[in-house]
Amino acid sequence: MKQLSSGQIRQMYLDFFQEKGHTIEPSASLIPVDDPTLLWINSGVATMKKYFDGSVVPKNPRMTSSQKSIRTNDIENVGKTPRHHTLFEMLGNFSVGDYFKKEAITWAYELLTSPKWFGWDPDKLYMTVYPKDKDAKMYWEKVGVAPDHIIEIEDNFWDIGQGPSGPDSEIFYDRGKDFDNLAPDDPENYPGGENDRWLEVWNIVFSQFNHTPQDTYEPLPRKNIDTGMGLERVVSIFQHARTNFETDLFLPMIRKTEELSDNKKYDTNKKDNEAFRIIADHARAITVAIGDGALPSNVGRGYVIRRLIRRAIVNGQRLGINEAFLYKLVPVVGQTLESYYPDVLKQKDYIAKVVRSEEDRFNETLTDGLKLFNQVVKDAKANHQTTIDGPTAFKLYDTYGFPVELTEEEANDAGLSVDKPGFEVEMQKQKDRARKARSGAKSMGVQRDLLIEIKDPSEYVGYDTLDVDHAELLEIVENEKLVDHSKGGSVEVIFDRTPFYAEMGGQVADRGVVLDEEGDKVADVVDVQHAPNGQNLHTLKTQEPLEKGKTYHLIVDKLFHSRVEKNHTATHLLDQSLRNVLGGHTQQAGSLVEPNYLRFDFNHFGQVTDEDLQKVEDMVNRQIFNEIDVNTVVTDPKTGKKMGAIALFSEKYGDKVRVVSIGDFSVEFCGGTHVNNTRDIGLFKIVSESGVGAGVRRIEAVTAKDAFKLLNDHEKELKQIAGDLKVTQIKDTPKRVDQLLGEIKDLTQKQQSLEAKLAGQQAQNVFADKKTAGKYSIITGIIKDAGMDQLRQLADTWRSKHLSDVLVLGTGSGDKANLIVAVADEQIKAGIKAGDLIKSIAGNIKGGGGGRPNMAQAGGKDPAGLDKAMSAAVDWLANK
After folding, report:
1. CB 587 within 8 A of CB 536
2. Do residues 56 and 179 both lie within one domain?
3. Mean of the per-residue pLDDT values for the chain?
4. Whole domain around residue 196: which residue ranges?
5. 3-class DSSP state for residue 658?
6. SS3 for 474?
7. What is the mean pLDDT of residues 693-707?
8. Can you tell me whether residue 696 is helix, strand or coil?
9. Is residue 281 part of a domain?
C-alpha cells in the first residue's frame, strides 16, 4: 500500500473529484451560519443544505470538500474506542441534480482501487446496500465487485426528517484477521456489524425522495448525491495504524503530552492510553473551534469548549500533569493541520492565550470540586451511606468538570460506589434540554421546485443607478404558481434589470415603488431576496394587476438607500478599528445594516473596556473626518486576497468579487453598496456594547442624523441633571456629583453605625432569652431597624461567646424580611445544619434561602411572618 501523509490523502481525494468536474469547496467555519438547527457544523452536507433544499442553485452542481466537523453526542466514548472523535474531517463529493448512482458508484470504486489513486486491493472492499435498491447493487457488480462482497442491510436508508432522503451504500475495508475481535459465529462479525475488522470508510447517499411534512416520500424533482468519507479512518488504513490515534493526525500531540507527563508513555497500559487519546482529540477540537471564533462559556458552543478543556485537564492529571499544559499543544495541532488549515497556526498565540486562561480558571474550580467531593464522602460516611447519588455525581461532572469515571475511581478509593443509572438520568435531562433548544427549526427544507426552474437572466444595476425605466417583467409568482397576470395583493416578481438591492451580507433590501409606463404607481417594493439561480426576487404589495412581458419604471427610495449605505460603510470602518484596537483575532460574527442603525457582532475573548470602546469610536470618526474616498474593484478572489482584502468564513465567493477599499485603512470583499467618500457618513456614535453569546460581542451604533440626535439627547439629559444639581455650567456637573457621593458615603456610614448600636442594644435582651428545644438550646429574636450586615455581626458575636446551640434572628421593614440562622460547630457534627433549618422556616416570610452548615440566610416579602418563623425554628429543633 502507498505511504501517504494525511495531507496527501486529503488532497488526493479532492484532486480526483476535481478531475471529474467538481468544484473544490473550502472548509466552512465550524460555527453554522443562519442555521439554528445546528450547534456545530457536524458533516460535509451540513454546509450544502441550501443547495439540496433548492434555496440556492450552485454555480457548479458538482462539488467536493474536506469539511472540518464537530460532534459531541457521544463524548464519553472518545479515547475508549479506536475511532470516536469530537473533531473530525469529512471528505465528500456532492451532486445537486446532476449525476446519480451510476457515476457515484463508478467513481468511488475507481478512487479506491485505481493504482493512480488510493490503489487498495479490491478483494478487501465490501459494500452494503438497501435491499430495495436494486440499481445500486447492479452498479457495484458492474464495476467488478463480487456478489458475495455486497451485503443487503435494511438500515441503509438515510433520513433525517423533512427534506431530501434516500437509500445509501456503505463501503467497508477488511483489515484482516489480526483485527478480529469477535468469535466467527458472532452475529456482528460481518461487514456492517459492530466489530473492529471491517472498517466503514465511506457512505454514499442517494437522495431521491422528498420526506414531506405529511410524512410521505415523494420522488425528488432533482436527484442528489451526498457522500461522506472520514479522513481519520482512511489515514489509519494507509498508515497501518490499529486505531486512528496512531496516525500523523494525532501522534504529534500524544508525543508532546508524553514530554509533559510524569514519565508516562502512550504504550504503557490501556488506562494511560485513554488519557493520551482524550487529550490529543480534545486539543484538536478546542484549537480549531477557538480559531473559528468559539470561546469557552457556560452555554451553547462555549459550554462544549469548556467541557472539552476540563475533560482534557482532568486526564492530564491522570498522567501526572498538575499544571497548565493544554495550551502548549495548540501550536502542535496547528502544525498537523497547516497544509490545509494554515490559519490555525497563524492564530496559535491567541488560541493558546484563551486555552491558558481557561486552564487557570478551571484549576481553581477543580480545587472547589475536590472540596465538594471530600465533603460528599464525609457526609456519606457520617450518615452510613455507601453510594454517591446520581444528581451529586452529575453536579461534579457538569459544574466542576469531573468525568463520572473519575468520581467512581475516587469514590472506590473511599469505599463508596456511584449511582451510575441516576447519573445517566441527569445526563439525559441535559441532552433533552439542549435538543429542545435547537428544535425550533427544520433541519433541511423541502425542495421548492418552482423557483429553481426560473433561470431568466436578471441584472442588478443598483451600484450605478437607483432609477430604471423600461424594466421588463420576466416572471410573476403568485400563490406558488407562475402566472402571466397577477390578481393583486402580494406577489414575487423578477425583472430583466433592477436597481433594488437584494438583502445580503447583513445589508437590508432596498424599498421603493413600481410605476407603469404612464407614471402611475402599481406596487410597493417591500422586500428583495435572491432567487435560487441568483436573480433579485422582489416581493411586491400591488395596487394594480401586473402583466408578464410589460415594462415598468422602478424607483428606489433614495433616502432609505442612502442611510443604509452610510451605516454599511461605517461597519467596514468599525470592523477594521476593532482589529486595530483589540487585535487581529477579532472576526466578524454577523451584522445588520438598517437605515436608522447598525449592529455588528464580533468574536472577542473577554469584555471590551470603556477605554477601548472610546479608542474604536475615535478611530472610526477620524476616518470620516479625513474624507477618504471609497473605491470598489471587481476582480477574482485570488487577486482580491493579494490586495489584502478580508474574507469572511460565512461567505462563499464566486469567480468574480467586489473589493471595497477605504484608502489604506480597510480592504474587504463585499457585495453591498457604499458611500463615495467617508465624509458622507457625517458622524459615528456607539450606542451600546454587550455580550450576546459565547465569545461574541455586539456593538450597536448610529451615524449621520441619528448620531447627531443621540448627542443632542445626551446634552438635554446633562442639562436636566445640571439643573437638578443646581449647577450653572454642565462642565461642573462631575465635580458636584463627586461631592454628593462623598456626602452620601458619610451619611451611610453614620447610619450603619447607629443601626449597629441599636441592634447591639436589642441583642442584649435577645441573647438573654435562651430557650430549650428538645435536647438543644436556641436563641431567637426579631431585631428592628437592622440590615443583613447587622444580623451577621450579631451572629459573629453570638458564636464568639458560645451563647447557645442555635441562633435564629430576623428583621423586617415594609415588604422586605430577612432571616439568619447560625449553628454551633459541635451541633453540626450531630447533624444540625443551618441550611436545613433556614429552608424549613423561610416559607413563613414568603421567601427562600440557603447557606453553609454553620450559617445560612433567607430573604422574603412578608415581615408579618417573622414571629411564626421564630416559633417554627423552635419546633424544628425540638424534633431533632
Report:
1. no
2. yes
3. 89
4. 6-249
5. strand
6. strand
7. 89
8. strand
9. no
pLDDT-based confidence at residue 269 (cuts at 50, 70, 90): low
Q: Count CA atoms within 13 Å of residue 12 on its CB side.
A: 23
Q: Is the pLDDT of residue 307 over 70?
A: yes
Q: For 512-527, give the DSSP string.
A: EEEE-TTS-EEEEEEE
Q: How far, in Å, CA of 22 to CA of 18, rounded?
A: 5
Q: Check whether residue 425 and residue 463 sit in a common domain.
A: no
805 lies in the same domain as 697: no
Cβ neighbors of 72 (< 8 A, separation 6 or more) are 40, 86, 304, 307, 308
User: Torsion-angle region of residue 717: left (phi > 0), alpha (psi -120 to 50) or beta?
Assistant: alpha
674 annotated ligand binder: yes
Q: What pLDDT is recorded for position 109?
A: 98
Grid look-up 508532546 returns 256
CA distances to 186, 451, 563, 684, 691 from 568, rounded to whole Å, are 65, 29, 9, 12, 22
- Which positions ≥6 away from 683 have C-beta within 8 Å? 621, 624, 703, 704, 707, 708, 711
Residue 380 has pLDDT above 50, yes or no: yes
How far, in whole angstroms, is CA 121 from its chain's centroid? 42
At 662 the three-state DSSP class reads: strand
Q: Are residues 21 and 41 in the same domain?
A: yes
Q: Is 485 annotated as a binding residue?
A: no
Section 558-572 average pLDDT? 97
List the one residue out of 114, 174, 187 whose CA is nearest residue 148: 174
The string of pLDDT tens digits covering residues 665-698 is 999 999 999 999 999 999 999 999 988 766 788 9
Asked if residue 572 belongs to a known ligand binding site, the reply is yes
Whole-model pTM? 0.72
